[in-house]
Fold these 4 entries.
Entry 1:
Amino acid sequence: MVLEPVRCPTCNGTHIVKHGKSAEGKQRYRCRNTDCSRHNFVLDYTYRAYLPEVKQQISDMAINGSGIRDTARVLKISQTTVIEILKKSSSLKIRQ
């Protein structure tokens, strides 16, 4: 049996502990690094919109002038999800 250490997708640290299960039954993990901005994560998401890469693509497409329907169609996710991600990303930029 080979054990691979779980790494945090944000800080790439290995000081990780299990943190329960998601609604779909996936294992949740918690990064114990105090400097890490992302504390909880799942290694293999069921829904693509939860992936950080997809969230970045949504922001990039919005900056380049793509509409919500176009973004949802291209990335194959819900329009509501696109709106919510854009709301959250704009509120983070306002606070900083």
Entry 2:
Amino acid sequence: MRLSRSKHSFYRHPSSSYLRILPFVACSNLALFISGYAVAGEGVVNPGSTLTSGATSASNSVYAGVFNPAVGSLMIAPKESFRMGYLPSFGTDAEVGQVDNFIDDLNDLVDIIDDPTSSNDPVQTLLDRFNAALIKMGDEGYVKNSVSIHAPIMPLYWQPSFLDGVFMLDASVNTQLKASILDAPLEFHSESTSFTTATSLYLKGAIEKSLALGYSQALLDKPLAKEYGGQLFAGAKLSVYNIDLSKQTFLLEKLDGKDVDKVIKDEYDRNLVSTTNVGLDLGLAWVADNYRVGASLLNINQPSFDYGAIGTNCQTRKEGSVERSNCESAATFAKERGDIKTLESHVKAARVVVDGEYQILSGWTVGGSADLAAFDDLVGSQNQWVNLSTQYVPSIHWVPAVRVGYQSNLVGSQLSAVTAGLTFWGILTLDAKMALDKVTVDGNSAPRSAGFSISIAEAF
């Protein structure tokens, strides 16, 4: 049984009414990392309006059931059978480390390795400058890009006549690429008057394809719901994940060749491992007339996915080749320094997310969500997000809905960001985020992270 919902209540409902990933373009991200910074939580970009509202069972988002499987039942009005997304949703996010003027140092370093006469500074001055910069690069130098796409008409909700609950079907693709620096000392060889360093670029890439089936249902009959002043919903979601993972290292000294693009692609393919596994999510939600609270237990079974090996079987590469040098570099950083691992797995750790939303006035709500523990995303960055937001959905159809929010990562990058979004005609959502933390690039200040999301889904 379901609580009744009026047009102006806290509940809002829709009116009646290839999955193909973008190519992995490693060299584009490599160029971003070396030449400058340009704007492009589990490691995915929240779809649609949830980029602002966060991982909440928000009252006006078709994606609410994706985060908490218990609220799928709230996505369809009692007399309707279906609700869906329309066109694919798209979101992207770019993030950099705290690397003020990092790019200038990196460019100058590559220049003096290629041509020691490119600088008139004394050798010791150059060694002091770049060895200090290399340590900072190794500690804080990274670029991370994320892209998320939901398939057309996803998520799809179906309320069959023979059951009290609602089924949900969802399909999406998420990609991440992270480029960081493995630092090693810069050395000068007086005999050859040359500079050398084992400093390497470290790339980790992931392509995750997922197909999920969920079911949710109210647990209280109508008399009990009326007595308690709310309804308890429960849900479960089973997701099938296919994840391609690859990682690679590249000596900076070898990055000046014309065939770098080919080396990157060859090594990516060589190190690629594809793993298929399943994950189970459970959710609960308590829903009253003017508020709702929820909790989700995600990836209870902690599915694991393998990365491709690096720094192994280097003797199978041609002696003196770029591939052989990169392999031996990876072996050094893994076995002698312990900075990376030759063999590695990504585990979707079991985690709990709590969320809530409160209606202040008709159409005006505040909400938030929080991860109760840290977890690693697809490329190994630590995440634990807290999100707060408020939104206003006017009763006049042609006036855009407005929302603003704040989010913070309590671990890892420890970035904080402001978010904002608009919904036009109840179906088109445009949302953007910008980090409050700044980085200086070429003398200009820029946010360390920025992103956006766009979706078209069935109106409320």
Entry 3:
Amino acid sequence: MKMIMAIIQPYRLEEVKDALYSIDINLITVSEVLGHGRQKGVTEVYRGVRENGNLLRKIRLDIAVNDEFVEPAIQAIIKGAKTGELGDGKIFVYDLKECVRIRTEERGSIAIG
């Protein structure tokens, strides 16, 4: 089991969700976050409003997947998020030690779905 965390541009969220849904990955958590990478200080336009520098609006996706879905999920996120411009985002993959579905108390890969 793996946890995939992706940081993407807010305006690419729908494209990323559509790409994930197309490969039957439907269990995602979406958070609005602030941060910056190498583009610190670069002006960005978000919903028609120009924002300067320090901390920029981003979207964080957390997706728990079984091992066979890791690479398809990565490719779907890239497909939906990539513009070729600075600030497209990052994808992090790390081991998921345990998953427990609260309703049924199922554990492990069965609990992920």
Entry 4:
Amino acid sequence: MDRERKIDELLDNLVKSGSEIDYLKELKERSIDATKKDVDLTEVLNNIAKEIKEQTESFLSQKNQFGTSLISGISTCIYLPDFSGNGEYKLKLIGGTRNRGMDLKIDEDTMFDTASITKLYTLILLFELESKGLINLNDKVSDINPDFQNLEDFTLNDLVRLCGELRTNGNVAQAKTKEEAYEMLKTLYLTSNTREENKYTDFGAIVISDTIEKVISKHFNKEMKFDEIMRIFLLEPLGLNETEFNPKSDNLSGNGNTLGLVHDPKSRILGGAVGHAGIFTTSDDLARLAKGLYSVNYINKKYLERLGEITFPNSAQSNKGNLGIYVKHPGGYAKTFTPPEFSKGSFSHQGWTGAMAAFDPNNLIHNNILVNAIYQDEDKDKVKADKPAGFGSAFEEYQKQITRNIMLMWVAKQYYNRYCNVKEDIDVVQYIK
């Protein structure tokens, strides 16, 4: 009974942090069962990891009704960082091939095209630059970037919040050259000037990265490109050495080509290093990003809170927060990639390529799922959003399954740390076929 009371305390803390209680009901029984055995924490976590491995193997081998593999490769990471001397836990599950129909295997160093997860990096960088006094989110874009005079009185913060509706004359993704693409981009105008609702778009992040280039170049009196600024102010301070635009490595996946190019057509024609898409990274580096954010030594707490901010709770896109980051939503997985089991203020993002990263800064939980899912077929019934038909629902089910086990890991680790005085770092890497 004493163990049950202690488990109840841990679950109560989850509920107080904002976890949805309905998703925690089965967690109590599983937690009691996991901790009652006469085994150490490592074995408890390894037992849970076995189930996650089976779930990952199932997702990797899954085919749709047309006999098409939903993914060819995967790198899943579960990370429970620690700042109190209780030990960290990291589990990585890696398997499959970098490209469909090829034998090159995914490994720990494989960098994945994260697509729109790039927007998260752009947002963090923007906040960091403001905290250093190098940029002001309340500045009108047209005042600090003369290329975008048609944005009227819109500020950087309006772009961050996805206010209004932005359009260009011409399709940037179909431009023949980088120069032509930028000329189209500079025609960007507002069809709606409202601050009362949001509409997801790539254009805001593209304008933000272009504006960062101009403002920072002017400040330091030398030309600085977005990828260089990102490296100096975010990647290097957090030790993200396996994260970059236009990667030089050929150990790449998730981008749907063997040329090393970003999948997103707008990013590709614009040079591959822009604010909405283009970052390649590894599971390990996403875990390092999570630790950097959670430590609050890198990013100010008010900015960390903005990453999980629900900006327009009553809008049609209430699941989208600043710069389109997915936030908590009452509809759960049907509306967002931020698990309902995570606390208030948690956030996530999934890119067009299928890559997903979720963050719970209050309970110190991180999960990323990097996949090779991009797929082409002349029969359009077999393809949805450049991925095999059925990928979306299968991914959602996989995320649900492993999140339940992530929460079980969290409770078990909290129980052993708090009540059994167990403090140890555990780092597990498992390869699957």
